[in-house]
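Per-record layout

source: Hoeflea alexandrii
name: Glutamate--cysteine ligase
length: 457
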Amino acid sequence: MARDTTDDTPISSINELADWMAAGCKPQDKWRIGTEHEKFVFYTDTHEPVPYEGDRSIKALLEGMASMLGWEPIIDAGKIIGLVEPTGAGAISLEPGGQFELSGAPLETIHQTCRESNAHLAQLREIAEPLGIRFLGIGGSPAWSLAETPKMPKSRYDIMTRYMPKVGSQGLDMMYRTCTIQVNLDFSSEADMRRKMQLGMKLQPLATALFAASPFTEGKPNGLVSWRGDIWRDTDNQRSGQLPFVYSDDFGFLDYVEWALDVPMYFVLRDGRYHEATHVTFRQFMNGALKGELDQPMPTMGDWTNHLGTLFPDARLKRFIEMRGADGGPWRRICALPAFWVGLLYDESAIGEALELTRNWSLEEVNSLRNTTPRDGLNARINDKSLHDIGREVLGISRRGLINRARLNSEGNDESHFLAPLEESIARGTTLAEEMLALYNGRWQGSVDPVFTDYAY
């Protein structure tokens, strides 16, 4: 999230929170695609991570991008920590370890999304190359220890850094040493939201396998294809993973609200200052738990919006749905991730096929799949069927969905060709992580150093 929200509208009831989410419902012709992608930032000469301060730094990149684009700087405690397009059509933000993120504009087609991502990377290279800086598109930091990873000066990250070790063993690794590609998608009604959330939850392990690209940690193979996927198994299980109530036939906005209300908060933002609030849930906040600690102790809609952004289930609900299971990856996969989900969820025939395919998958079975996928990748199984076989079926459904959408570019091509990197993985039967491991054991001669050239933007 580039900028935390300040909306002083008071909250008078829990139903208002559900109504706020329901206000995201849109007719199909208003559905949009918002793609986010993160990448590691490193020095080309040493392959070391780039710190925030200095002449060749994250700060210098942000200032250069601000000058080039004319985007508004986001300031936290006097330091630039992001940029936002003046009309709200996109933002640049920093993850805790300096991972550079583009939160794309809400666009109509994958063609537009791909052009946006390519333009962003070209602009970034123009600023970065004179500084001797490049970017790495994979899911997990391959070489740097946690101690070697820089820390960005964002107040919310200071709070999270103190809190994470209290609630899980891998939260700091999640914050500082992972990258992802995500897509934000719309829904037309509560019923449409329900089926998209259910399908998103069930198929997130498949996305993890298809995009698995984090096989190295601190210079060595880690025994996994998606270290990032494994990290999410023990980050903060109160606010992440699968949500049992989503599987219910009558799941609705209020169910998500009731869950979110009982998750501990991270912070409350008042007058530009972050106040730690990890000792209370949002429900306790609504009941006056911060009276005596804040000058404005009762929650606002801005507080609610910010709180929703600190929840990390596999599919996250706000006024849209975020698909969160994929590792970061090379540039072709930035376009493939939204194509995968749009093909499944934005065509009526496709979503019906996908729901039927997964109809008998129980929460327990999906949780088991989620636990084995980081290690087994496409070989992970559910109901005696491998993700490799399921992936072939699901990609076929997604391809048909994109063809049915018939969103053509100037050359008359639909969006289905953006699935090519995933279809290639299925055809080979290997994840990107396994291809990296083959290189490590072959041409790379037991070194992860070549990843900084072979997979750099």
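summary: The mean pLDDT is 97. The first strand starts at residue 33 and ends at 43.
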